[in-house]
Amino acid sequence: GPEGPNLIEEIRGAKTQAQEREVIQKECAHIRASFRDGDPLHRHRQLAKLLYVHMLGYPAHFGQMECLKLIASPRFTDKRVGYLGAMLLLDERQDAHLLITNSIKNDLSQGIQAVQGLALCTLSTVGSAEMCWDLATEVEKLLLQPGSYVRKKAVLTAVHMIRKVPELSNIFLPPCAQLLHERHHGILLGTITLITELCERSPAALKHFRKVVPQLVQILRTLVMTGYSTEHSISGVSDPFLQVQILRLLRILGRNHEESSETMNDLLAQVATNTDTSRNAGNAVLFETVLTIMDTRSAAGLRVLAVNILGRFLLNNDKNIRYVALTSLLRMVQSDHSAVQRHRPTVVECLREPDASLSRRALELSLALVNSSNVRAMTQELQSFLESCPPDLRADCASGILLAAERFAPTKRWHIDTILRVLTTAGTHVRDDAVANLTQLIGGAQELHAYSVRRLYSALAEDISQQPLVQVAAWCIGEYGDLLLEGSCEETEPLQVKEEEVLALLEKVLQSHMSLPATRGYALTALMKLSTRLRGDNKLLMKSPGSTQRDTPIFHLLRAAILEKMPLVERGGTQDEEAKESKEAQLSEAALVSTEPPVRRPEAPRGRGLGRASTPSPAPSALSPSCFSLHTPASVPNLRVFEREGLQLNLSFVRPPETPALLLITVTAVNTSGADVTHFVCQAAVPKSCQLQLQAPSGDTVPAQGGLPVTQLLRIFNPNKAPLRLKLRLTYHHLGQSVQEIFEVNNLPAETWQ
């Protein structure tokens, strides 16, 4: 076969993939034959060629036994290629790697440095747990050998062995104390790494090494003040890799240990004040110092110094350094709130970052910095961020502002204004309970009823697209419409509103294609309530869509009870109250007269349009008398339509007796596997004779091990009672792969359409 350089030339000269494959197949056949003939002189060359082929991504496993033969050979040229081959072609899954244990043992005890180096490199690359057990004492002997070349490699092999078999700690503990006196950079760096590994894995080792803290402090002080090896300094910082490694070890030794933390206080202050920050190497050392100060029981002044360093990082031109600073300040905000608070203006400035990951971190930190003394100023900043922030941050920003307002609101009026502004700016992004919370808040602030209804009416007149805003406004107008027409509110500009305008606005909401079924329910309820609140007669109301003259007696029946002003719902009532509340809610939903929405319990699934999955939206005949007697729909059996790797899809059916042409299907996705199902999307299609409306799902992640299921409501209108078929398309990510499934459901129970 061709020599190495010629083979490389030939492969590179191949014009097509097929041509390259041909050259390589021919060469592999030749290498195989040469292995069979066992030509001892050129064996290492053939293996070297095979390794080149392997690095190009072609199979080379047939060279494994050849590696073992070369390792066992007495010649250095053979050993070198043999060990390199072993590192590339062997791993723990093949038994062949156990066969090299003896060769390594012999090579380690021979005393030829270059050969010992090869054996140690291989052992720390492919050494399995069994090999580590067998060879630990050999490696331990080499740790204190005279030659620094072998000692350095032995230390790194010891690190590998501790990671593989933590029980070997005791063998490697004693030599470490002696190795710390080394001046050789590589050995010292390796020793610090070895001690770090030992301390992380064994409480006994942690206790043992606490007594070397003064020695570590001395090594680091020498590095910072004098810098003993110029060849290892990087842009003026003395051996930053060693500094960082020592700081990490000090962090582990000082955690929850008063005495060790005290020993390192002065040194940490020295590193923090003497490190040059104009270059990245200096910033790396400084950042590591900050982390060590944060994690140990350091003095209060030192913690303030750490926060100030992070504050300086926020002004750095490098994005990564700013990101690191924001992340670390977020960790410190609980323990050192007032020190972090000083950097608030800089943090708020970072909200304007064009980089999404930076602005997300800045948002999290800004929200954590809100307290009762700065709530007005911070909310102002966050609201202006909300108006221009990237879409994927809007939900987090909106709910963050609402939570902060709930905790720290200085006055009720300010609280109402804040929620209103969020709903106006980012209504579609707020959590489901925002509507319930605001109606609760307004209901409880009697002195602000007139103010609230005016503010909401004006907001609604400007924009009817933000659904939560429209729902609160409709609720408020229904409750306090009489105050809106009185015009007796000193708090706002005089606002002249006529009954006709109010009714026209609610009618506009009812007819808008943007209105969700729930929103229409709110508007319809408001219209009905206004029939008892307004001075004029109800002729105007009779014109609202879906009303007929025969409905009039019902108004009179209902006036007394259902349309009275809402009593204030206590938040977090007992379970009995909650059960009663949900019963009332169901009743009012059946009537499609949704009074104040019940206050949600925290575990209610998120996702709009699902809270009301059990009932239809206000149908044209919403006010017909039959609605007010509550039927239990005939039960239709549930149906499992899909199962794969722990993900199940079940359908449950409801046909409301008052609208027999309507079928409500709730799709429930449950995941019993060990991994979350993410990016879950379910789409559906029905025959042409039916109309399908797909509500938004409660989420797009189905949590593992039977966590909270994802639900989605399908509303199918089938006026001709045509036989029903359903076509479903699922797409999701699960167990590392993306899945797409399309299937038909032909076995729907006859009760769903007949």
From TrEMBL:
One of its GO terms (biological process) is intracellular protein transport. It is found in: Cytoplasmic vesicle membrane; Endomembrane system; Golgi apparatus. It comes from the Eukaryota. Residues 569-624 are annotated as: Disordered. It is a peripheral membrane protein. InterPro entries: Adaptor_Complx_Large_Subunit, AP1_complex_gsu, ARM-like, ARM-type_fold, Clathrin/coatomer_adapt-like_N, Clathrin_a/b/g-adaptin_app_Ig, Clathrin_app_Ig-like_sf, GAE_dom. One of its GO terms (cellular component) is AP-1 adaptor complex. Residues 634-749 form the GAE domain. Keywords: Cytoplasmic vesicle, Golgi apparatus, Membrane, Protein transport, Transport. Its main location: membrane. Residues 613-624 have a biased composition (Low complexity). Belongs to the adaptor complexes large subunit family. This is AP-1 complex subunit gamma. It comes from Ursus maritimus (Polar bear). The lineage of its organism: Eukaryota, Metazoa, Chordata, Craniata, Vertebrata.
